[in-house]
Structures are given as C-alpha cells and as structure tokens.
Amino acid sequence: MSATNAPKRLGLVIVGALLASGLLLAACAVPDGPAGAGTSGDVVFRHPGVVVSHTQLQHAQQMVAAGKEPWKAAYQDLLKSRYASLGYSAHPADVVPCPFNAGPQSCLDERQDAIAAYTHALLWSVNGRTAHARKAVEIMDGWSAVMKRHEKDNAGLQAAWAGSTWARAAEIVHAGYPNWEKSKVDRFKEMLRTAYLPAVRAQVPTYNGNWELAMTDASLAIAVFLEDRAVFRESLKRFRTRAPAYFYLQKDGPHPPGPPHTAVDTADTVRTYWFNQGTYVDGIAQETCRNLKHVGYSLAASAHIAETAWHQGVDLYGEAGDRIRAALEFHAKYQLGEDVPRWLCGGTVERNMGPDLEVALHHYASRTGAQLPYTRRLVESTRPAGTDDLFVAWETLTHGEAALAPVVDAGSRDAPGADGAEAGGP
After folding, report:
1. Smallest Cα–Cα separation from 343: which of 255, 416, 271?
2. Which tens digit of pLDDT belongs to each residue from 306-326?
3. Phi and psi at residue 89, to the nearest 5°
C-alpha cells in the first residue's frame, strides 16, 4: 500500500467493518454537554457517558477513517499495544489485597485487565470489529464471575483506578453491543456495587488528595453506569469540596483550605500537609512538592469527573474552571522545564507527569476557546497519549484535536513576596 493511498484505504476498511458489524452506537446518540440539569445532579442519565460520549466515539471513527492526525497515530499506537491483542488473557481474582507501595500480582492484573477491556471497547467502537467487543465482554465477565472485594491499605486507590476504567469500558459496550447477556451485565453491575463502591466511597480526607479525587472519579463513573442518582449527587458534592483543598487560588485566602472534616486548618498544619510549601500562588497543588506525577493523576481524575458530569448535564468545568485552568498552566510550565524559583519546593520539582492533560485541554481549548499555551505545548509534545497503566488510557484518540501553530510562551509567574520556602514532606 502506498503512503498516499494508506489513509483512504484505512478509511474504507473501517467503514466497511462498521457496516458489516451493525455497530449500534449511532442508535444511542445523545447530545453532549449540559442540557438543563443544572447543578443538582437530578439527571436523566446519558449513555455512553463516562468520560467518553457517543459523539466523541463517532468523531474518532471519522478522523481515523480519514487518516487525520493526531487520531491516526493514536489509533495506531492503540493497535500496537499489548492490551489490544485478541489473544489477551485476563487473570480475575476473588480478592485483591493491595498494601501501600507493594502488592501481589492480582493488583497489577486487575488494573491491566480493566485497561484491556477499555482498549477493546474503544477498538470496537472505532473499527467495528465485533471480536473486540467480545474480548471486552470476556474480560469483564471473567472478573464479575469471581471478584468479591479489595483489601489492605491501598484498597481505596486500587479500587478507584480499576473501577473507573471498568465503568468506562462497560458504558461503551453496554450502550451499543447487543450480545452482552443481560444476566452478565447485571452480574457486572453487582460487582461494581459491592466490590468497588464501598472502597471508593470511603472517607480518607487526610490522605494525599490524589486519593479522594481518583476515588470520586470512580464513584461518579460507576454511578452513571448503575444509574444511581444518590451516589451521583454524593460524588458531585465530594468533588466540589475536595478540589479547593487540592488546587489553590489566591481568592481562597492566605493559605489553602484544609480537607473537609480534618484538623488541617491552620497555616502550620496546611504547610505540613502541602509538603512544607508555605507560599501559595494560583494553580499550585497539594502534591506539587511531592512530585508532578501525583498532581498529574489529580488533574486527570478531575478532568474525568468534570467530563463525565458534562455528559450528564452538569457543568463542573465551569464551576471549577479558574481553579483547573490555573493548575494546568502552573504544572505544565514546570513539566516542560521552566526554572523553578527558590520559593517553590525549595527550587526543585520532580518532573514526572504522565499523559494526563488531554481531556482537560479538549474542554477548555475546544469548547470554550481558552488559551492554555503551556498545557497545549506539553500535550502536543507528548502525543499520542498512551496509558499510564493505572487509569488513564488513549485520550488523544478520544479527546484529541488538531495541533495548532506554535504559540508564544506565557510569561513566568513569580509569587509576590516569595522568599524561599524549603522543600520537604515524606
């Protein structure tokens, strides 16, 4: 196949496969975005509507078929992934015991199997090959047949990472694939309700904030798939109170608010909780001085929460827009290599952010026209976004946009009166 004709032929193959498979996603089409639900959480649930909507899946189909970038490269990366193999074998377990910083093979297996199910759900939605839908169902059925609970210290975070991904996969397949047996769908729902929801609804406010944001991502996703309005409303409320305790804005006061229902409520206790950071500027996060990897997790989880809410008619993006945009630009700047001033983390940050910003950039740049030069530059320099092997996967394919011409960097921010806070924390 010549390079010139490759995109055209790829498109014909995909379109033919879509027609042959009888892909039903088009029958489930619903408008994207808030549509009168307000902020109460009293919604009529839209499916698929966990991070990815029908419209976005349809757009990915069209862009890949047309050979457009960055979707074409993202699709090719997905195809080459070990998760995309039709020979992928799941390793379900009845109990997943994950202690801090370690754990048996079942902890890794659970996360990877959830990503594999989501990978095959995406492949089916893009190329129409029913073998991928069958593989996604096989993986999900294997786990729902045996899975009972999570245990040990890392149970909440482990359940969050896997649970949010399971819900994304299940939403896509259940919305359009007619051959997932109802009894197996019901069993999968029961697994999410009994083996995941209790763990992700647990209250751990004094833990580092990436925990409760990831847990909220999972609880909201599961609530949508289960159509559980009470858990949906609870998850919205949790995000609204937790985000300000993680991403700071100067309007919050001289120091960030502590997490709700904790004794982290004075300048000294907040400084300790923020890894000995005592100077606060717009966009700084509770774990900035830990490393940018965990801030990336939190930005990804926050974007997942806001995107899922958006598809269900609730505009968390608007409510938390100034906070999220400031955090995106602040951290993207330093991930890109900007010199770190002495007042920030003693002059050193660990630049290890993953593929975490695509969903947020898609909303603020494509839907609202916001200018986020550092965020855009970072995203475009790391496309196509793959997976972190935890809970972020293939977001250039689902939320990508055409690259823009190079932009002029925004000026660096300096903290007024900053005088060199020392780095610290565990």
Report:
1. 416
2. 999 999 999 999 999 999 999
3. -115, 125
